[in-house]
């Protein structure tokens, strides 16, 4: 690890000012991605801005229509939250499946979403629920937020402050996990709303994506059998030491069926 300047602001405005005025500066949320990359010297920023002392970025609230979760809320808190368990149980289940206890107690919702790892779980929930990403500058719809591999619509100096999740009629999440890391080889989040269904896939490609054919079929009949015959094109999906693209394509349908079953319980 190389030396860097360390800042721990007490206000969001102070954090934004640091990020826009200090050259080559990185944001530190839970540190589950940044700290390992610093240790391996895969990243060598001149400065790090730690958001740990910003209480405004933590907490969970319910307004009856949406559930809003602060960006610095740890995965374990989301998983154990009575609000999330009651209103969007699939989101609580997803959070409980992330990594191991150490990761769940340190890693944060905002950090995961901002990092946009192609195998992360939260992007599937954010896109599948059609959530809104609230930042220090604006609000961004999930469909416009995830741009590409580790890329998002965030501008330099822009910080995720919270994410607002619409409460669905029903939702489910299922993933086929890598045994060691518990990252998703394929994870599928399915959410049914009064006006239709959203299906979001993580782990299979360069980033989270929706499956229109499954959404249309499930909007007609919200049953696993409705999507059993839908095949996913393996072109553009990931092949690596964990799984070939063809296998991941197969898993998308399998996990989607399981997610629908979970949502129907």
TrEMBL record:
Keyword Oxidoreductase: yes
Protein keywords: FAD, Flavoprotein, Oxidoreductase
A Pfam family: FAD_binding_5
Stretches assigned to the FAD-binding PCMH-type domain: 1-170
Matching SUPFAM superfamilies: CO dehydrogenase flavoprotein C-terminal domain-like, FAD-binding/transporter-associated domain-like
InterPro entries: CO_DH_flav_C, CO_DH_flav_C_dom_sf, Diverse_Substr_Oxidored, FAD-bd_PCMH, FAD-bd_PCMH-like_sf, FAD-bd_PCMH_sub1, FAD-bd_PCMH_sub2, Mopterin_DH_FAD-bd
The keyword Iron belongs to this UniProt entry's keyword annotation: no
Name the record gives this protein: Xanthine dehydrogenase family protein subunit M
Organism from which the protein derives: Bradyrhizobium denitrificans
